[in-house]
Specification:
It contains 3 helices and no strands. By secondary structure, the chain is mainly alpha-helical.
Length: 64
């Protein structure tokens, strides 16, 4: 549960903006989407390896 501290004179738009920012930082939506379907550990590990290879290629300048 997210709790937003708002002052009495604070605009509702500012409070809503704070809520949205806090919601995004908590990564709640990503966790919910991840839990919708089961991914095998081998598939999860393979995607991590592919991401690491891609990042290495980007860092070394081999990939444009």
């Amino acid at each position: 549960m997210l709790i937003i501290d708002s002052k009495d004179c604070e605009n509702i738009d500012k409070a809503l903006k704070k809520y949205k920012k806090k919601f995004e930082k908590s990564r709640t939506l990503l966790q919910l989407r991840e839990r919708q379907s089961f991914t095998k550990p081998s598939v999860r590990r393979r995607t991590q390896v592919l991401k690491a290879v891609y990042k290495q290629q980007m860092a070394s300048g081999k990939l444009d």
